[in-house]
Structure prediction request, 428 residues.
Amino acid sequence: MTKPISAETGRAALRALIQERSPLGPLKVMARHVGRFFQIPLSFFRPYVVFGPESNRKVLVTERNKVLWRNTDPVTDILNRGVLIVDGEEHDRYRELMEPALHPSTLAGYTPMILAYTERVSSQWKDGDVVDMLVEGRKIALLIIMDALFSKDVWDDLPHIWKPILKAIEYISPGAWILWRKMPRPSFRKPLKMLDAYLFGIIEERRKQKGARNDLLQHLIDAGLSDQIIRDQMLTMMIAGHDTSTALFAWVFAMLGQHPQIHQKLVNEVDALEKSPLLDHVIKETLRMYPPIHIGNRRMAQDMEFAEGTVPAGERLFYSIYLTHHDESIWEDAERFCPERFAQGRKTPPFSYVPFGGGPRACIGAAFGQAEARLVLSYLLKRYTFEFTGHAIRPYMGATLEPSPGVRMKVTRRTVISDHSPINLHNE
Ligand code: HEM
Prediction:
């Protein structure tokens, strides 16, 4: 049972939706008026929403056997049996096969490749160009993930796969299908088919090469999985592994653009130090304010009791990373971008900072994603000046939370480059 939503809360939520043009507005209103446990009061969509360290710990760790990851969503249609959305032993098997390629000990090996793609994309910029860091970041993240996991240089294929990938992301983003689950979506058929053909092509090519590589794709092939199941893991990793990093890169630039003093301090520090602590803090604070994955989506296998109420079996549950990260009782001045809050180590309770989820189903790419962000951002900040064009930015809830309508910045190549030292991959 949940507390009934008052008419006043309903009106405030509607006002927030109109003002912020994002469902984050009403979610914040519900959190403020009702608390850390509520049910979205729509007749056609009534998920429960919980947030805060105690609930996060329950859902992610102590009572995780009461929840299922598999739901009935477009994400399930498209990812089929991808590791993100299967449960039990099937999940554990796929995860175990994929973990070695993303183990922290392998990360240093990816450094030259990550820097090379960052260079390749940024070398296309001409002095004075205004570039959208959401688009440029996506190019970089996509090239990196395809090479890291499938040893595939997709540079020449980008024009061909770009739109199908964006369509796949749009397919799983919140949309009108929430109102009408089985609505026909004919415009997606062709691009999704094209993307499948592309991935099946990579698998076929590799099968002919007979053990030529030691990457994630090879581990899946060597385990004897079918082409269909390998395609499911590839699509899952391709989307989960680049759309999140894309959002993170773009939000970092949005935050730096809106906080010129922090931006300048960061450039100075990245120039001066081999490993900039401020860069880590900027990344962490950006992930706090704008977690690319802002909710975790579950289906209850059994009733689960929270301090504030019970979510019955069969219901949909969201644990909200965004609301946890914006809770004023945990985070002082939560709406302020303040990287220094991460300077003195952890001050907030466990499970109050969960940009990568937690427990056994925490993000498989967390170490990779953070190392990648440090490398890409320090490379770019050392070589270019970025001037924000000052346009309005709002969080858009797609498959990830991304800055809309992008982050347009004027780029100029810097004349003095301070980068003579290897970039340190490891955090703290
Ligand atoms: C900044 C970058 C990233 C962020 C913020 C992020 C965030 C997350 C979060 C919050 C979850 C847990 C969701 C839940 O509890 O429902 C998750 C899971 C996952 N992430 Fe990431 N992620 C990032 C990068 C990556 C990368 C680089 C990869 C792949 C190389 C990846 C692959 C996955 C997969 C496969 C899962 C599901 C794990 C499982 O269920 O066992 N992510 N990610």
In short: The chain has one domain: 35-413. Residues 267 and 381 are 6 Å apart (CA to CA). The longest helix spans residues 227-258.
